[in-house]
Design brief:
This protein is mainly alpha-helical and about 100 residues long. It contains five helices and no strands.
């Protein structure tokens, strides 16, 4: 379960990082757009070491994404932005057992 969470989390980081490519004008702007990716990489590292904390963090992050980005308004956006971190969190939590 932990390997599946790591792979899905890494694929999700790559997907989220693609959104930062629209700001290739300057390096500081690119780095600001990559902040969510940096947070996700940090949470994956935490999940590798402590599965329960990483799992809870990903589930909370999924809820934050849902409320902050209003992804509940569109089913497609909800499925692509908010659901993958929840699945990663559940996988990390289940791998704790």
């Amino acid at each position: 379960m932990k390997k599946a969470a790591l792979v899905l989390g890494t694929v999700y980081v790559i997907f989220i990082s693609l959104f930062a490519l629209d700001s290739l004008g300057s390096v500081p702007e690119l780095l600001i757009h990559l902040i969510p990716s940096f947070v996700l990489v940090f949470l994956i590292i935490v999940g590798m070491k402590k599965s329960m904390i990483g799992g809870i963090s990903f589930v909370v992050l999924s809820a934050v994404f849902t409320l902050f980005f209003n992804t509940y308004e569109s089913p497609a956006t909800l499925l692509t932005i908010s659901l993958p971190p929840a699945i990663v969190g559940i996988l990390f939590t289940l791998s704790e057992r």
